[in-house]
Amino acid sequence: MRSIVVPVDFSESTAYIIEEAIYYAKAIHSKVYLLHVASLDLGFVIGDIGFQYLPELEEAGMKEETDELLKYEKKVKEAGVEVEIIVKQGAPSEIILKEAKAKETDLIIMGSHGRGVFMEAILGSVSKDVIKKAKVPVLIIPPKKYVNHK
């Protein structure tokens, strides 16, 4: 079976990117892996004595992010597309590429920020890094406000 990795960052464009991923998954009969890469600093706070690691904060943060991802999983399932969620911590581009390889992905679908004219600003550093290093096609979905579906 074909598969698509869709990194999810919970930005305002996430729902739109998932809609587009559903469209492509149906077109090529693919399973969708919704991947969220959580921040490495979820359990750290800074206080009077410097940085402190609080595992309960990390656990709560990971649970919130997983719960949010489950909402998107439900949307994909309701559209009739097979889906699996993945939540990992680490450097986003590295995790995206690692999971794409592990899942033998045929396509990576990511969103762009659309904030400027330079590649960094248009795509963001994560998208740019994934495009440079991916062994499979990467589809960049522009922000919905820039798409003119007629």
Automatic annotation (TrEMBL):
* GO cellular component entries: cytoplasm
Organism name: Apibacter adventoris
Query: Which protein are we looking at?
Result: Universal stress protein
Q: Cross-referenced InterPro entries, in alphabetical order?
A: Rossmann-like_a/b/a_fold, Universal_stress_UspA, UspA
Gene3D superfamilies per the UniProt record, alphabetical? HUPs
What Pfam families does the database record attribute to this sequence? Usp (PF00582)
Which SUPFAM superfamilies does the entry link to?
Adenine nucleotide alpha hydrolases-like
Primary subcellular site in the record, as a coarse category: cytoplasm
Q: Which UniProt keywords apply?
A: Cytoplasm
Quote the subcellular location field of this record: Cytoplasm
Family per UniProt?
Answer: Belongs to the universal stress protein A family.
- Keyword Cytoplasm annotated: yes
Q: Which residues form the UspA domain?
A: 1-142
Tell me if Cytoplasm is a UniProt keyword of this record: yes
The record's annotation in PANTHER family points to: STRESS RESPONSE PROTEIN NHAX (PTHR46268), UNIVERSAL STRESS PROTEIN UP12 (PTHR46268:SF6)
Question: Coiled-coil annotation: which residues?
Answer: none
